[in-house]
Q: What sequence folds into this?
């Protein structure tokens, strides 16, 4: 009996020690579920990626981007990281000299100096020059509301009245503003067993925030919505579905309250893929105000977006385990909705695109 007990303990310790060799972040079991699989490597319709970042566009060889775009049926890439002034013009020259119909570039605003006399008017004037140079929109990074400070060292709220000349100018110029505010609310929530982004925060601890770092999540989000409402003549694209893709009922209320707001689906496909029936209803109802966007430029990740939007597949893997430990389901969207999400809605916000790319 004693020998048997020792043997059990030895076996337990052996297996436990082997299990300990694998870190928790490596645990990624393969599903044994057998269901029909219909991977989608190429979008059913040509599409516009409204949310991409290409920081070296002024000097890079664009032909490699074009090859990747063609493989997945991307008609136009919108580079949100255009900067301003000379740097922006250099990007636009490279595009216009090589592939003038395949890329759109957005300008950015430098928020240094907020608080100085006439800062807003000067920033708006620079933006107007950037648009005359060829910029088709304005991208606002999440640093506004999180990190940007005025000349007195105070956090700049998204609805700070000193920024009003910028939003007003965008309305006058007829250009859209794509804005990323805050981050997922889970980054502000307690990091405990109930936080479904725990693994992401554990492996990337710099993403964790608190109510005072730099402000409560809801406060930042509310600042953004107040600003949208103050400028009804300006068209806003709320990046990442405004971090409400996990609460489509609330997002629907906001869509009703703010008719000048559209939403992009960049970096939140995992939220849509876990609620296919509710998400499909949402896409059908707001089909004229949802835009395709990916965010990070990783061509190998696009097929998951296509599969969620186009297929009726069940329980297939997402590409980033630390973002989502759950599986995806396809929304099986109707063709007329897919066409709007893939390119028609973006074309309405970005007039002047080559329509022959989308036939």
A:
């Amino acid at each position: 009996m004693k020998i048997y007990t020792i043997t059990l303990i030895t076996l337990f310790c052996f297996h436990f020690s082997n299990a300990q060799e694998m870190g928790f972040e490596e645990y990624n079991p393969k599903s044994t579920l057998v269901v029909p699989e219909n991977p989608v490597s190429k979008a059913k319709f040509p599409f516009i990626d409204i949310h991409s970042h290409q920081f070296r566009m002024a000097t890079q060889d664009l032909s490699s981007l074009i090859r990747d775009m063609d493989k997945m049926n991307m008609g136009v890439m919108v580079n949100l990281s255009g900067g301003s002034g000379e740097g922006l013009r250099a990007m636009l020259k490279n595009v216009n000299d090589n592939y003038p119909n395949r890329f759109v570039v957005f300008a950015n605003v430098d928020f240094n100096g907020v608080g100085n006399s006439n800062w807003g008017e000067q920033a708006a004037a620079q933006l107007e020059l950037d648009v005359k140079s060829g910029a088709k929109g304005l991208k606002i990074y999440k640093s506004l509301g999180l990190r940007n400070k005025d000349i007195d060292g105070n956090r700049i709220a998204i609805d700070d009245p000193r920024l009003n000349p910028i939003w007003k100018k965008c309305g006058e110029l007829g250009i859209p503003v794509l804005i990323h505010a805050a981050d997922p609310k889970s980054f502000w929530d307690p990091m405990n067993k109930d936080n479904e982004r725990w693994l992401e925060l554990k492996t990337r601890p710099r993403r964790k925030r608190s109510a005072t770092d730099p402000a409560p999540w809801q406060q930042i989000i509310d600042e953004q919505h107040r600003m949208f409402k103050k400028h009804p003549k300006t068209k806003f694209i709320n990046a990442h579905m405004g971090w409400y893709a996990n609460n489509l009922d609330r997002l629907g209320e906001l869509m009703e309250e703010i008719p000048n707001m559209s939403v992009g689906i960049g970096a939140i496909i995992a939220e849509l893929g876990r609620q296919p029936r509710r998400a499909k209803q949402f896409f059908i109802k707001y089909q004229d105000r949802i835009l395709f966007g990916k965010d990070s430029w990783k061509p190998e990740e696009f097929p998951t977006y296509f599969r969620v939007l186009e297929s009726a597949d069940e329980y297939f893997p997402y590409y980033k385990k630390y973002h989502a430990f759950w599986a995806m389901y396809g929304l099986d969207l109707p063709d007329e909705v897919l066409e709007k999400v893939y390119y028609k809605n973006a074309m309405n916000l970005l007039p002047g695109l080559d329509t022959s790319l989308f036939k």
